[in-house]
Amino acid sequence: MKYLLQVDFKMDGPFGEEMSKSFADLADSINTEPGVLWKIWTENAAAKESGGVYLFKTKEDAEKYLEMHSARLESFGITDIRGKIFEVNEALSLINSAPI
């Protein structure tokens, strides 16, 4: 079974193209984290929110990543970090062409 991690938080920016350039190294480093299969980056500049949706091989990998990532965000001064872990229903998700 695979696990989805959803994370979001308030952030003043950067967003869009500037975000892509500023966080490219971070994006590369996420690929080396244990159990990460993929990440979709999310942003809402108008609401000053950012985050991501990740797919992990195990619940333990998702939990460890959330703990590490929350500490990293807090070191940047970001607070009110929301993280949720969900089991993925692969059979139904595949019907809807989910990349799992």
From TrEMBL:
GO function term, MF aspect, one: monooxygenase activity
UniProt key word Oxidoreductase: yes
Alphabetized UniProt keyword annotations: Monooxygenase, Oxidoreductase
Family matches, as Gene3D superfamilies: 3.30.70.100
Pfam families assigned to the protein according to its UniProt record, in alphabetical order: ydhR (PF08803)
PANTHER family assigned: MONOOXYGENASE YDHR-RELATED (PTHR39169:SF1), PTHR39169
Name of the protein in its database record: Monooxygenase
Biological source species: Cytobacillus citreus
